[in-house]
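tl;dr need the bound structure. longer version: we got a ligand (adenosine monophosphate) that a collaborator sent over and nobodys looked at where it sits. i said id run it. heres the input, straight from their email, havent touched it
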Amino acid sequence: MKIVESFGDLQKALGELKQSVGFVPTMGYLHDGHLSLVNKAKEDCGSVVVSIFANPIQFAEDEDIDNYPRDIDRDLNLLIDGGTDLVWIPTVKSMYPEDFQTWVNVEKVSIPLEGKFRPTHFRGVTTVVSKLFNAVHPDKAYFGQKDAQQAVVIKQMTRDLNYPIEIIICPIIREPDGLAMSSRNIYLNDQERQAALCLSQGLLAAGDSFQAGERDAEKLRHTVKNVIKKESLAELQYISCAHPETLKELEGNVETSLLSMAVFIGQTRLIDNVLLGNSKS
Ligand code: AMP
């Protein structure tokens, strides 16, 4: 496995890879969710490129990027074991030199849900992913359904900017007890880790209710809210039942929909979602 930092070294290393190239962008502190994307890329492509970059411009001022968990040695060992061919670890300075002033902004689908509470988040994500795509020019890029809105926003950006890249969205990987894997789970103490189960349990309850025939969007949202409400350490920020592609909030009877939410467990903000009426997640 080759490890590079500069754009120049990346270009040289890319030239030595077998075609086709599968790309997995990450912010590091890897877990089985990230590795599932690497595995899928390995299955589909001749070579796998992974980037590790905790992207400062997708964090708001009150979101502490300096405390974002990091363990580069552990990450690299996991990537070697996963069969990654090339890891790119750009520096913040090389990505955003002092006079940096160009942004990529996807409009409509960046606005609701996460965008409502993190208004500068997605322009940070689309700007960095655009820069990563321009540097790596992969054939396929892999993202997780865990960040459901991000998946929609990236697909939109890829279409709108005519990137010749196939975007593959992989299912959410969960801990055995249901908690969606996330680098942020490390922030949870034992009590909070237990409390965090209310997210997946809420979604499971709504999923069961949908299976049993419930189709009313408000009732499905309500089912999740009721589970979260019972957990004293949890504070629901939003629960949404939205169109899976436009992300418009739905009312009345729904067939396919994205049920998604953000919940604070203590100081830690967690997100989770399920696609209803769809076998993908
Ligand atoms: P991050 O390092 O948090 O930016 O995540 C990098 C990629 O891994 C994103 O496409 C995420 O959606 C994906 N990812 C994170 N957690 C999971 C998970 N539990 N299951 C599947 N994919 C995930």
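gonna send this back to them w/ a short note. The radius of gyration is 19 Å.
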